[in-house]
């Protein structure tokens, strides 16, 4: 029989937000992370340690907009869109050549690692990236588009890479 010792009420989140656990909920220091993917805001709570949610506004850089805003802005803060937990840390990707790491010690600390990739990415026009934890391993799934949108044919493929942090 499973026994629950504490309860966390989840915040109301905008659509397309993510909720990720850093570890098993009963392990000391497990962080519940809520990511608002349309804003540069995260909420976190350490199970059994924090009495409530902590809001944290982050800045991990800027990205170009496809269409400038009405006031002429052509850049915006880069949001975290897809995130996964692996070995007590959180990982997310904003570009093909870089993976970001979010650790709590105890406050949020952001860092990044370069992704070593081969020449096949040089021919990718556009890609959707997903990080997936499975079987205590971290994988990057890529839906790669090689052709230009709006053409008669669109060449795409799915790829999966096992992440190696050694």
UniProtKB/TrEMBL annotation:
Matches recorded under InterPro entries: KIB1-4_b-propeller
Classification via Pfam families: Beta-prop_KIB1-4
Ranges for domain KIB1-4 beta-propeller: 18-165
Name recorded for this polypeptide: KIB1-4 beta-propeller domain-containing protein
Species for this entry: Leersia perrieri
């Amino acid at each position: 029989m499973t026994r629950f010792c504490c309860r966390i009420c989840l915040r109301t989140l905008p659509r397309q937000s993510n909720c990720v656990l850093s570890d098993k909920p009963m392990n000391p220091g497990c962080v519940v992370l809520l990511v608002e993917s349309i804003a540069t805001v995260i909420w976190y709570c350490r199970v059994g340690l924090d009495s409530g949610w902590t809001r944290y506004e982050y800045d991990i850089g800027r990205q170009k907009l496809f269409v400038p805003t009405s006031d002429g802005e052509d850049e915006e803060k880069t949001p975290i869109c897809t995130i996964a937990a692996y070995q007590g840390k959180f990982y997310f990707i904003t570009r093909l050549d870089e993976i970001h790491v979010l650790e709590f010690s105890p406050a949020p600390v952001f860092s990044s690692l370069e992704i070593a990739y081969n020449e096949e990415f040089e021919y990718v026009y556009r890609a959707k990236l997903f990080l997936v934890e499975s079987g205590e391993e971290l994988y990057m799934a890529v839906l790669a588009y090689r052709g230009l949108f709006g053409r008669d044919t669109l060449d795409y493929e799915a790829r999966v890479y096992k992440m190696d942090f050694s």
